Each structure stands twice: as C-alpha cells, then as structure tokens.
Amino acid sequence: MNPLMRALVSLFSPRLNMREDYPKVRRFQRRLAARPVSRYRVFDRQVLSEDGTHRIPVRVFQPKEQRRDEVLLFFHGGGWVTGDIESYTPACAAMADLTGCVVASVDYRLAPEHPFPAGLDDCVRVARVLLDDPQRAGIARADQIVLVGDSAGGNLAAVVSLQLRAMGHPGATRQVLLYPVTHWDHDPETSPFPSVRAHGEDYRLTNTEVQDYLELYVPDPVERRSPLVAPLMAEDLTGQPDTLMITAEFDLLRDEAEAYASALKAAGNTVRVHRVPGALHGFIALPRFSRALRDAYEVVNDFLDQDPPARASSAGGAESAA
C-alpha cells in the first residue's frame, strides 16, 4: 500500500477503545446498515437454544436469482462484541446475490454481556439443528449446508466444526473462512506472526483492538489459549470440512489464518487458500463493485461449484430439532 493510501486509511479509521466504545460502535453499525425494506428478500426465523432459555434469531436471505442449492450458514464478524443480523444485512444480501445461494445469518449472543462460550453455544446449536434437519433450511441434504464466517465469525465457524467433530457429529462438509481469528496473541512483541507487526497499527483493525475484543469475549486469560477460542491451538485437526481460506493482504490476521489453513492441510484435510491482493480486514462489507469483494466471490463461487465430499455418519445419531 502506497504512503498516500496508508495515510488516508489511517485518517478515516479512528482508533477506538473497544472496552469503552463498543456500544457506540454497535449503534453506528446499525445506522450505517439501515436498509429500504423492499430492497432485500428476507425472512426472520428463530431456533430454540439447547437449554431452552432463549431463542436464537436467524435471518434468511433469498437471492434475486437462485443458482445453487446450497445454504450458506453465516456467522458474522465484529470481534464477538459488535455486529448483528441488522448491521450485516447488506453484506448478507450481497452474499446471497453474488453466490446465488440462500444465506442464513445467525444472531448469536454478544460479549461482554454474554461472554464465552455463549455466542459459540448459539452457533453450534443452530448448526446442529439445520444439519440434523436440513428441510428446516429448505434443502434435501445436510451436505448442502456450508459454514461461512468472517473475522470473529470465521473463528466461530472453525470452532463449530471442531466442536461438532468432538461431539461425534458428522458436521458440515465444507466451510468458507474469511480472514478468521485463529490465535490468542496479537501483541507485536510476542506474536509469532509477522503480519501482526506489519499491519497491526496503520489499518482499520489494530492489534490493540483485537486484544480488547478477546479480553471482552474471554475474560479468563488462560481460556484464551483453548482451541475453542484459538483453533490454531488444537492438537487434532483431522476430520474437518473441506475449507476455503480467504485472507486479506494488509490484515494483521493474515498470517494466523493462513497458518490455520496449513495446519488443516497437514492434518489431511482438503484446503484452498486465497489471499486477496490489496485488501484490508473486513472487505466482505464493502460495496459490490469493489475489486476485493469481486475477487473473493470469484473464488467462493468456484469453491461452491466443486462437488461436496461425502458426509460421514454420526457417531451419536441425529438430534431432533426444537
């Protein structure tokens, strides 16, 4: 990135104290995503939580032209602290139209009001319900469900896959991880990843903000090293879905995401990695004409065009949907 562009990005990306400013960020995101009601074809649904104490909202987006049978089960970004189905509605509507797939966006609980593992539990619950009863998603087969997530949502998608395997559940056969968080340390002095040092200060997401998000999501520093928070720490990555890993060139999370892809591949999984040149963190929310977005969706569509792998049988049997 040339010096002028770097200066402009820094100018229009004010630094935040996420510990204090997250409520303001939430309000700003919702105002920014305000939508004409008639523009999107959406249906709001709910899934009962595992313990029956609350309902998990799911917003379903119909593409203008449905070209594929897959349903993309989407977990939004926002550091586990910001973002929701309202603020991600434009991005999900674009995802539906640009892939020709139905998109189901999960409104999982956010920290710090609901710290780890509340949001993860919601995501696992929705994934299990739809995988066990795909007709609820309007499809015939569970292998037509693809897990997708960006940033913290990419982290959740990866961890949902790990959790399902640990439960003896066959899980999804494919996942698309967009610049996910996979490690617990984003301090430039101690991180093992060069991108944290190269891109953690000048761009729209800083290492300080990532650390603040993690501390709000997981108050216990010991728990942050758990594979359920930092999937790169998992000792066993076998049996994971076919994975498309998409990273951004100027993103501090780039190297840890690509390291996770390498670890998945080393464990015998099918993995494809695509680094979007010139892109910053969070580009999935850019306007549809943006070069980074078009680049990413060309790769996503090619990945979706591949035949899904065979789905393993469940060790524990199917769970009834509620």
Structure commentary:
- Keywords: Hydrolase.
- GO terms for molecular function: hydrolase activity.
- InterPro entries: AB_hydrolase_3, AB_hydrolase_fold, GDXG_lipolytic_enzyme.
- Pfam families: Abhydrolase_3.
- Residues 72-284 form the Alpha/beta hydrolase fold-3 domain.
- This protein is of the alpha/beta class.
- Helix 4 (118-132) crosses helix 5.
- The chain has helices at 3-11, 18-32, 89-99, 118-132, 152-166, 194-199, 207-217, 254-266, 291-305; strands at residues 41-48, 55-62, 71-75, 102-106, 145-150, 174-178, 242-250, 271-280.
- The protein has an 8-stranded mixed beta sheet with strand order 1-2-4-3-5-6-7-8, sandwiched between helices.
- It is 34% helix and 17% strand.
- The longest helix is centred in the first third of the chain and has 15 residues, at 18-32.
- It has one domain (17-305): Alpha/Beta hydrolase fold, catalytic domain (Rossmann fold, 3-Layer(aba) Sandwich).
